[in-house]
Each structure stands twice: as structure tokens, then as C-alpha cells.
Inverse folding.
């Protein structure tokens, strides 16, 4: 039986998961692929830690170059993460005409253009299924399963850590800091959780999805990013009273020929499928013009789910090599290179949507009318109001849901409202998405 020889750089959590899958399911993979995947070389700085995988003598090395320059290796997996030395290793592998598999979303979001240009130049493939959605077969679905569709919108819960925190806060009424600490103790959150809770990780993944779905390059810095660290149990509770749940949502959609690209806490209707996604799970809701709405759901991280996606990439590349030595069957970024073009991004100030607002007001006459007057002068109309008699930190919460309003107008109105003498503290606002269909 023909063999496809592969090398691995990085033998940590994901790398050891890949090795376990290749060993455990070797016969299954052979039966489906018609060839055997042979893990020929693994490079890692730590050769002493027991990963629970038995390897032949000589497979392990501390030198990545021994993987990259091995003429017998067809495919190189980069599984160390981060920007450097991962970027250097990938580019070296490409120049040595090795096909590449990576799970490195941050690297692809920030330096994908350079990597894909190099792959195009040297005629090799770069597969990255595990970079978005962990074990969910999402990228392959966009590149192949939805190839007949114009993608109209993407709404994604793309970070399991933030989703776990928001789920616990919603179900148990606990505060952000308390739940974050629990998530860290359980290993769901890093010691420094900034990338997860501030939306950066989800934005890395959104940048990759936008390239694939819309056939346009995007600069990571152009994606609007907001996190969940300021979300409170009080706002979660008021959201429930309006019929909403709060999720950290990655959003990309075409509106009037421009792309909206944003990540932020979002109130979505509690009867929508995305509202039911709890814990560390991911879900991506994609609408195509022909297929309509589709939902992809599963584990977005973890040793074995991510390892599953990496092995899926190995099998795809292996199948290509069995048919044609050059490998490439599907374009690197879903679109033919000549068809990739710039699509303008909509400025965040120009995005239109409903808003949730919570004002901390003194219990005095005409407060509501003064607030609504300022909103009205800025073209913002109110769809619902909740005014509680109880005091919170010396003020009475006045909560409103608006009709669709322009982001810039909302900021202008809130600046004016927050200067009123009857308003204590900065007004809380959360964006709302009603039209997810």
C-alpha cells in the first residue's frame, strides 16, 4: 500500500492528539484513503514529557529543520501556535515544496497573505481546518459544500471560553470575575484570558472566514472588536425580560455591497438556535442565497476534536497527492486567485441595528422624558422600556430597547445623556441582532 509520509512541528496538546488518532484509527484511515499515513518525524523542544503515545526510535527530534528538509516528507504540520517561529517554519516548508497543515488562526489572520502568496508561488497547499471551530468541519464546508452559494451572512460563537463564562453567568446569575476564575481552574481559560474574553481570538477566526466566504482580503485591524468583561448579571437579567440572551458573536455580512466585520457581545432572541449553544461549544450560523440558513455545531477546541480536524486535512492532502503529485485540487482560499478582489468594509459608525441601553438615573420627575428627548433628536426611537423602582448603587435602572439606529448616532446621544445631572455613571449599551435568518 502506498504511503504518505508526514512530519510534525510541535508535539504538545494538539500534536499528541494527532498522533493518537493516527495510531488508533490507522486502519480506518487506510480503508477510506487507500493509502497509509506515516508519521515520519516529530520536532519539539521537549522530548522528555510523556504524551501517552508510543513512537518508533528516531522519530523525535529537537530540530524543526530535520522535518522541513527531509526529502521523504510530503506534508508538514505546524502545531506550535503563535507567530514566531511558526511563521518562519511554515515559509521554510513551503519553499521546500512541502504541503502544510496548520491550526494557527492568529498567524493566518495576521500574516495569511504572505503565507498564501508563498504557497501559490511554490505550488503547494496550505490546509487549516482546525484554525476555526476546532473539530467542526467548517472550512471544508465553505470551500466545497457551499461552493454554489453566495454567502450572505455569518454569525458565529467562535470562542468556547467566553461562551462558557456567559452561559454560567446566564444560568446561575454569577458575576464575570467569579466565573472567569472557575473557568481558569477548570482549564477552560488561560492564566491571561485577554484573547478569549476581549474578542481577539474570535476576531482572528472571523478574518479567516471572511476571506473564504467573500473572496476578499481583510486586515485584522479593520475588524471591530469588543469583549465580555463588562457584561453584568443585571444586564443579562434585563435581556431575559426582553426575550434575549447575550452571546459573544462574530458577525460578517454583506450590506449594500459592503462587508460588516465585527465581534462583540450581542443580544439575540432566546428562541434562536444560537441562543441554545452553551458551555465551551462553538456554533456558526451561515446563510447562503441558495441553501438558506445552515448551522455548524461542535467542540471548538481540545486535544482530540482539534486533532480530528488536522488529520482530516492530512487525508485531504494525501488523497490529492494520490491522484496528482502537485496536490492542489481546491483553491487555497476557496476562490481562484484571479477572482479574489477587494470589497469595501462598512465603517462601524455606519452600522445600523437595534440597541439595548441601561441608564442609572436618580429617581426624579421627567428623567425618562429627558432621556427619550435626546434619543429622539438623534434619530433613535424606543421600542420598549423597563423602569424598576428598586435602587442599584443609589440609582434606579431605566432600561430601553431601541428600534434600528446608527452606531454613530447612539454614541452621540449617550455622550449627551451621560452629561445629565440625573444620570449616575456611564450608560451601558449592548448591540442587538434580530435578523439572523
Amino acid at each position: 500500500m502506498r504511503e504518505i509520509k508526514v512530519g510534525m512541528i510541535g508535539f504538545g496538546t494538539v500534536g499528541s492528539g494527532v498522533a493518537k488518532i493516527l495510531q488508533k484509527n490507522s486502519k480506518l484511515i487506510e480503508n477510506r484513503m487507500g493509502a497509509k499515513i506515516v508519521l515520519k518525524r516529530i520536532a519539539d523542544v521537549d522530548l522528555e514529557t510523556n504524551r501517552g503515545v508510543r513512537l518508533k526510535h528516531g522519530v523525535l527530534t529537537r530540530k524543526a529543520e530535520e522535518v522541513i528538509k527531509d526529502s521523504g516528507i510530503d506534508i508538514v504540520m505546524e502545531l506550535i501556535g503563535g507567530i514566531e517561529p511558526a511563521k518562519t517554519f511554515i515559509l521554510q516548508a513551503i519553499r521546500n515544496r512541502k504541503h502544510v497543515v496548520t491550526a494557527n488562526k492568529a498567524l493566518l489572520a495576521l500574516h495569511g497573505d504572505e503565507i498564501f502568496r508563498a504557497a501559490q508561488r511554490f505550488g503547494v497547499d496550505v490546509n487549516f481546518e482546525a484554525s476555526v471551530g476546532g473539530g467542526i468541519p467548517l472550512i471544508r464546508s465553505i470551500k466545497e459544500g457551499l461552493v454554489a452559494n453566495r454567502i450572505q451572512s455569518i454569525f458565529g460563537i467562535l470562542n468556547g471560553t467566553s461562551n462558557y463564562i456567559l452561559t454560567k453567568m446566564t444560568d446561575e446569575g454569577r458575576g464575570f470575575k467569579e466565573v472567569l476564575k472557575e473557568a481558569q481552574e477548570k482549564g477552560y481559560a488561560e492564566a491571561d484570558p485577554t484573547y478569549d474574553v476581549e474578542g481577539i481570538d474570535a476576531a482572528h477566526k472571523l478574518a479567516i472566514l471572511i476571506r473564504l466566504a467573500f473572496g476578499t482580503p481583510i486586515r485584522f485591524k479593520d475588524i471591530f472588536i469588543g469583549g465580555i468583561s463588562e457584561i453584568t448579571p443585571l444586564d443579562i437579567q434585563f435581556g431575559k425580560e426582553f426575550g434575549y440572551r447575550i452571546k459573544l458573536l462574530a458577525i460578517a455580512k454583506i450590506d449594500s455591497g459592503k462587508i460588516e466585520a465585527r465581534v462583540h457581545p450581542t443580544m439575540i432572541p432566546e428562541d434562536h438556535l444560537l441562543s441554545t449553544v452553551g458551555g465551551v461549544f462553538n456554533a456558526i450560523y451561515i446563510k447562503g442565497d441558495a441553501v438558506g440558513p445552515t448551522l455548524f455545531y461542535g467542540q471548538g477546541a481540545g486535544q482530540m476534536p482539534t486533532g480530528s480536524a488536522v488529520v482530516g486535512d492530512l487525508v485531504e492532502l494525501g488523497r490529492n497527492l494520490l491522484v496528482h503529485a502537485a496536490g492542489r485540487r481546491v483553491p487555497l482560499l476557496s476562490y481562484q486567485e484571479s477572482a479574489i478582489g477587494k470589497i469595501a468594509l462598512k465603517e462601524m459608525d455606519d452600522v445600523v441595528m437595534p440597541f439595548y441601553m441601561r441608564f442609572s438615573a436618580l429617581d426624579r420627575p421627567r428623567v425618562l422624558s429627558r432621556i427619550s428627548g435626546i434619543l429622539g433628536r438623534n434619530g433613535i426611537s424606543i421600542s420598549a422600556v423597563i423602569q424598576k423602582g428598586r435602587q442599584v448603587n443609589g440609582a434606579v435602572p431605566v432600561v430601553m430597547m431601541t428600534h434600528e439606529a446608527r452606531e454613530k448616532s447612539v454614541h452621540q446621544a449617550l455622550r449627551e445623556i451621560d452629561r445629565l445631572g440625573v444620570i449616575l455613571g456611564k450608560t451601558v449599551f449592548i448591540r442587538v441582532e434580530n435578523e439572523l435568518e
Notes: The CA atoms of residues 244 and 269 lie 4 Å apart. The chain has three domains: 3-135+303-338, 142-299, 349-432. The chain is about 35% helix and 25% strand. The mean pLDDT is 95.
